[in-house]
Amino acid sequence: MVALQAAMKSGDENAGKQAWEQFHESVVESVKNDYEMAAGDRAALAQRGYRQLTGAETEFYQKLITAGKAADPRQEFTSLISTNGAMPETIIEDVFRELTQEHALLSKINFQDVKYLTRWILNDHTKQTAVWGPINGEITKKLESSFREVSLTLYKLTAYTVIPKDMLDLGPTFLDNYIRTILKESIAISLEKAIVDGNGLNCPIGLDRNIGKSTSMNPSSGYAKKTAVKLKSFEPKEYGNVISQLVETENGGMRNFTSVTLICNMKDYLQKIMPATTVLNAAGAYTKDIFPFPTEVVISNEVETGEAILCLPEEYFLGLGGNKEGVIEYDDSYKFIEDQRTYKIKLHGTGKAWDNTVAVLLDISKLDPAYITVRNETVTA
After folding, report:
1. Does residue 102 form part of some domain?
2. In this structure, which of 77, 216, 267, 366 has its CB flanked by the most CB atoms within 10 Å?
């Protein structure tokens, strides 16, 4: 997973293909080994992360296997989708659930499985107040929440998996685990990158992007990155000034929050954040992640080295769902010679922070290590 993420981030197409093939092969071998060791043993399969399939899921996978082995698999697969509709919702729901459990950043944001909806209504955080008046006076103001409608079909997230045909012989349970593992990891990498650094060009808008009311999206490069705020220490005054930038919304409202999230990559955490937030206590033991304001550090290697994102992750909305016409498509031409079959999943959705004050991009390249300040005072007799 780490190698695949690094290869995709590098932009090297060959490195990406090689990392993907290695990841794919490792999943195939893992599933085959589990099949040989634990086939039929439900307890052992559950320990290895295999789900107990529902009736609808078992039927879907069984028909998928039958279609894959047919003399005219393309026609059989077309019939499967047209008669059975999309993949059972429970499969996608389980992928989403595991994504939020296993990827810290995805578990912090306002992640919504919107199923097959194409539009989503969000409260726009507009502050409205009642109006005082005489007891017998006319009601002068109606309280209404301001809502924002978000289109979920703006962007399409596509991932594909190549299934060796002998995998079809392992049965529905193992095919389910294989497909979900491949799709889950490929989707996770794409989502995390978009949440952190998406430019809004055919993808969600990242937390590090400038989406202020006075800005607009460049049709060729998307939204520009925010100007990074230099942070040299986590001293209360300096850190408090930075956090205060999250308080006032663009609409003029004031947020109340009891904690914030700091997103950085693993290298910067070890070299910058950890030394700046770790102290030696009176008992001779190190205490880490000491901040003057409650802060949770989340590691994401999608953040550029030397930078960090301070944010309110619950104020970032990410809606993702399937397509009513079927989320899985099949093709036999891509890997025909290697006796492998390609399956593709399509998801629709979008992601964006509530406004430009939800996140602050930080420059932590000059962050000082933590140290105890000692002040000498001369006492006059």
Report:
1. yes
2. 77
Half-sphere exposure of 306 (CA within 13 A, CB side): 4
Instruction: Catalogue the E-assigned strands of 49-192.
Output: 110-115, 119-123, 147-151, 155-164
Distance of CA 282 to the CA centre of its chain: 40
| Rg of the chain, C-alpha, whole Å | 25
> What is the SS3 assignment for 186?
helix
Residue 50 lies in a domain: yes
Q: Cα 288 to the chain's mean position, in Å?
A: 26
Cβ pair 173, 189 in contact under 8 A: no
pLDDT by residue (tens digit) across 302-340? 999 999 999 999 999 888 776 544 455 555 554 444 455
Which structural domain, as residue segments, surrounds residue 82? 2-126+147-204+322-353
Q: What tens digit of pLDDT does each residue of 198-227 get?
A: 999 888 999 999 999 888 899 999 999 999
3-state SS, residue 284: coil
CA distances from 116 to 26, 123, 322 (A): 32, 21, 5
